[in-house]
Known about the structure:
The structure holds two protein chains of two kinds.
Chain A: E1 3-5, H1 8-12, H2 16-28, E2 33-35, H3 46-50, H4 52-68, E3 73-75, H5 79-94, H6 96-106, E4 115-117, H7 119-131, E5 137-138, E6 142-145, H8 168-175, E7 179-180, H9 194-197, H10 199-215, E8 220-223, H11 226-234, H12 236-243, E9 251-253, H13 254-261, H14 279-284, E10 286-287
Parallel strand pairs in A: 1-2, 1-3, 3-4, 6-7, 6-8, 8-9
Antiparallel strand pairs in A: 5-10
Helix pairs in contact in A: 2-13, 4-5, 4-6, 5-6, 10-12
Chain B: E1 4-9, H1 21-29, E2 34-40, H2 46-59, E3 63-68, H3 71-84, E4 92-96, H4 98-102, H5 109-126, E5 135-138, E6 142-146, H6 150-161, E7 165-169, E8 184-185, E9 190-191, H7 192-205, E10 209-212, E11 215-223, E12 226-233, H8 248-252, E13 258-259, E14 268-269, E15 272-273, E16 285-286, H9 292-295, H10 302-306, E17 319-325, E18 327-330, E19 334-336, E20 353-355, H11 356-363, E21 384-391, H12 407-421, E22 426-431, H13 441-450, E23 455-458, E24 461-467, E25 470-477, E26 483-489, E27 491-496, E28 498-500, H14 504-511, E29 538-540, H15 550-567, E30 572-575, E31 580-582, H16 598-602, E32 608-614, E33 620-627, H17 637-641, E34 647-649, H18 654-665
Parallel strand pairs in B: 1-2, 1-3, 3-4, 6-7, 6-18, 7-10, 18-29, 20-27, 21-22, 21-27, 22-23
Antiparallel strand pairs in B: 5-30, 8-9, 11-12, 12-17, 13-14, 15-16, 19-28, 24-25, 25-26, 31-34, 32-33
Amino acid sequence: MRIGYYPGCSLEGSSKEYNDSLFAVAEKCGVTLEVIKDWSCCGASAAHNLNHDLALALPARTLALAEKQGLEDIVVPCAACYSRIAGTKNEISNNIAVKAKIEGYIDLKLTADVKILTVFEFLQKYIFPTVDQHIVNKLNQKAACYYGCLYTRPKEIAAVEQIENPMEMDEVMAKAGATPIDWAFKTECCGAGLSVSRTDIVAKLSGKIIEDAADRGAESIVVACPMCHMNLDMRRPEIKKQLKKDINIPVLFITQALGLSMGIPADKLGLNKHYVPTDKVVNCIVKMEA
Amino acid sequence: MARIGVFICHCGENISATVDVAKVAEKAGKLSGVAFSVDYKYMCSDPGQTLIIEAIKEHKLTGIVVAACSPRMHEGTFRKAAEKAGINPYFCEMANIREHVSWVHPKSDATTQKALDIVRTMVAKVKKNAALFPIKVPVTKTALVIGGGIAGIQAALDIANAGHQVIMVEKKPSIGGHMSQLSETFPTLDCSQCIMTPRMVEVAQHPNITLHTYAEVESVSGFVGNFDVKIKMKAKSVDYKKCTGCGACWQKCPSKKIPDEFNEGMGFRTAIYSPFPQAVPNKPVIDRPNCTYFTKGGKCGLCKKVCPADAINYDAVDEFIDVKVGAIITATGFDLKHADFFPEYGYGKFKDVIDGMQFERLASASGPTAGEIRRPSDGKVPEKIVFVACAGSRDKAKGIEYCSKICCMYTAKHAMLYKHKNHEGKAYVFYMDIRAAGKDYDEFVRRAIEEDEVQYIRGRVSRIYEKNGKLIVKGVDTLMNGEPVDIEADMVVLATAVVANIEAESLAQKLHISYNKHKFFAEAHPKLKPVETNTAGIMLAGACQSAKDIPESVSQASASASKAIGLFSSNELTREPIVAVVNRQAPPNFTSCTGCLLCQEVCPYHAIETEDIKDRGGNLIKRAARVNAGLCQGCGTCVAMCRNKSIDLQGFSNDQMLSEVMALLNA
Lengths: 290, 667
């Protein structure tokens, strides 16, 4: 099976550590990811607010290119990209007229048969079969898995089984030797794209998430979405002002957390690229006995 | 030689405004075999019928075609007219030129041509018609009522009071159903048990009602007027002939920690138990999987030792009885959607998040708290309760698109009961819409809001979680610009969706009645046959058909009882002879049927039996199919399946159908 990879803009820029840690984990398990050649923007936020056809055409082009390249599964680590691409696939597969129209725009044919995988689906499917032999550390900490909105809705493309109580990342964290906690803000809104225009709202919403995780004793928050990561990590000074207290729980990408359990060095996983220091997480780790 | 009369109806202007009726009558008159043809303004009117009768007599017609509306509308009318004129009524056919022509096409020559085409096919058909005679089947004047809740009780009492025998089967140890669990009832707030228990007693004491509790319907065969039902009598382990219901056994039973179903898991019962003090019959059964005697190989036996009537029988086994009934009323009720359906609401995770039925038990004088509203976790009286309406209902994402109908009313009632008992308490209701369309219903909800100061918040709850010993209910107020609302509550009551009884599907399959995708039983027609099923002789009562409150359940129960009583009003049933028949031939063939019985496989009504054809010495010559005319609904599936045309449908024979098609093709 040839596995495609769609980085999107975030994984090449603000969330480079997500990209690096994903490749590090894949490499450790001998899994190769092929970047979709000449991929284009998924259209997140801008396109689908302005023009529905454009919002479908952009991901459709990427899907068509992936098919041309002979890829059967494609991993889309960014939640916004996942939502756009999976949403497009869903709409095109269920409406012949829309499919024909979009094929006309992009001047490419597509079957929309490729499977779109989130990172945690990718881990379950390709990494889990061999991961046990690579796990050398126990993360040994209470982790709050935060899913946000884009993986859990709309129902038609939800990447999780129980949309109101997703457990997929919790399973990955248990594998990494952490204790996933039961908490109330798994799927609450982080403020998303208001990060720039209304930082005050982001501080309020993300603040509640961080506060509940802290109240329930979480030592780390684990995410799979670059936007969530940015709001929970980069906006911490604003959150601190909002909460009137300093909560310094680090926020990790799920691939970074799994990478740590596999003994991959922290700098290779990009742990030094966060605003909230991650030493606490690293300090919890215990070596597993052979 | 056929002499057919054709009667073209104008239906006022319904047909004549679009179809050139005079032209159709004229052309029809020239068709082969047509001896008379005429058009008239209202064929179904008295003069119209007289016209038909006179024409039949005058022109010595052998068959008639009435080109008018759908046969569903007036076939019976015109067949009666034909009969009055002295011909067999099944020599009357209808050509539907209203629903199939004038109502669906504009005025044009093509429309008139289509009307004529249809008339032509029916003329071709009627020439092949045969005289048919109604089928008579005997009726067993006993009704089976399945389910002993309020709907079943009402239906049983109505039928019994009309002088007919009733057999009631209830799977639990007592009749009473959900209504016996309720505290007060809306919109009058009268005590549920006070109005319910007298009716339960009436059932038990009625000379025409035979009550089987702790029993289930095992299998059903037969047909309207003549059902054969096997009833499984589960082993009660108590001899009811000896038992006096004194209660010595359950007072001494050492297994005291079994979650009490009647109290919805809030409280405990013993292994030998009667579900509640007003139970009917008020005699216990042994819950074997929870009884020490049965689980620990004969250890214990205390109930037997203390029973003064020597009624305990550990060796009792399940027994089966066969009964014959003429009508069946299903009144199997509903369930509430249960745990793990609401991970976001913490139902099943937080002890103080309960469902509506649990609240009923808390508010009930016979409940685990003797009617004081105390929360399950620590027994404290909650200062703030949040009620969540539509917990699962009207929620496509949860797979339940329908409205559970009773929740708006009972939620208002719950909030009211709480406020009446705790004047200082605060009650909030999250709702989508308030659906209170019943007599005195909206007034009741307004009373909750205006007099009892229940705070209604229009919006959904996204999540409920525990924090510092409080339940945080996160919702939204859509009337306040979508403002998020967080309420710190001491207890939350979810109005969970009403769903079909968990055993509804298997019962429907035993009864051969249809059900919808949510497993609610299907009525024969949503408006005009709301209590009958598609299987003749089986009626529906109460929430087994759809979510219903008490007044509606009782109304439907009485309606289904009236259907049963109507069925029992004569000694024989008359049925339309539109049934399949297996052909008969002279010996040595007897029939062309080879007994492959493919027809039996496809028959949706289980109407195909086998018949052994024997010679005079009793030796088997061949085995052939035979149609049970009582069960056959005339669908014709068997005809399509039969490989050598041995089976045919009376009134719609292959020959008749083919003549119709040929008439169309040979235009």
